[in-house]
Amino acid sequence: MDNCFIDITVEFLAVAFHNILYYGSVYPGNVFDTRRKYSVVVYRCRHPEVNHYINSCLKSVEECLKCGTLRRLEFAVTNDEYNPIVKFVFDFDKNSVHEENSDAYLVQVEQNLRAFCLNLNTIIGKFQNNIENKSFTIFLHTNESSAVSMSINPDLQEFPYVEVEDKTEDCERILPLRRFELRGYSIDTYVEIK
């Protein structure tokens, strides 16, 4: 897979995860720092354990992207019983046709990433609720051989992988966020509200 695609995607997901935590009020606002990314203000959690978990997940995402086995990633905000109340879904597809020189300077990509961050800010009120003790979980949809290779990779062994049965869940609403092209790949983002 294209290293540029992998680097930009992992960086984008880090920004998205932290902003979901902030706007979803999973943690108090005072544990976040503000930064600038994609020409907008974004948030980053300062809590070391939260950062460790997110960074460990992002290492796994990077490994799956290198192998070309990541099809979907779900960032679920959960209630106090760890049941998802809202899922931010990122679907990855390889485009059959890609023009190498299109958006060579990644101007359109940056505009799409900025639009995602701004959309995230505006739609959060559509599913904001007063549930206390929220948490979050990150689900990677990959194949079995990729999961096995990650479990024996010494760089990823400190992070536990748990296989989840494939099941369908009903959701009350689906809100599209953004679809954008990046170096021969498409990333669809949307929100599933339980």
Strand adjacency order, main sheet = 5-3-4-7-6
Question: pLDDT average, as an integer?
Answer: 84
Run of helices and strands = HEEHEEHEHEE
Number of helices: 4
Report how far the terminal alpha carbons are from each other: 34 Å
Query: Oligomeric state of the chains?
Result: single chain
InterPro entries: HORMA_dom (IPR003511), HORMA_dom_sf (IPR036570), Mad2-like (IPR045091)
Organism: Papilio xuthus (Asian swallowtail butterfly)
Domain HORMA: 3-191
GO cellular component, one term: zeta DNA polymerase complex
Could you walk me through the main structural features you see in this protein, from its secondary elements to its overall organization?
The structure is a single chain. This protein is α+β, with helices and mostly antiparallel strands and 194 residues long. Helices cover 35% and strands 29% of the residues. The chain contains 4 helices and 7 strands. It has helices at 3-23, 48-67, 107-123, 144-152; strands spanning 32-37, 40-45, 72-78, 84-94, 135-141, 173-182, 185-193. The strands form 2 sheets. The protein has a 5-stranded antiparallel beta sheet, covered by helices on one side. A two-stranded antiparallel sheet has the order 1-2. A hairpin with a 2-residue loop joins β6 (173-182) and β7. α1 packs antiparallel against α2 and α1 (3-23) runs parallel beside α3. The longest helix is centred in the N-terminal third of the chain and has 21 residues, at 3-23. This is Mitotic spindle assembly checkpoint protein MAD2B. InterPro entries: HORMA_dom (IPR003511), HORMA_dom_sf (IPR036570), Mad2-like (IPR045091). One of its GO terms (cellular component) is zeta DNA polymerase complex.
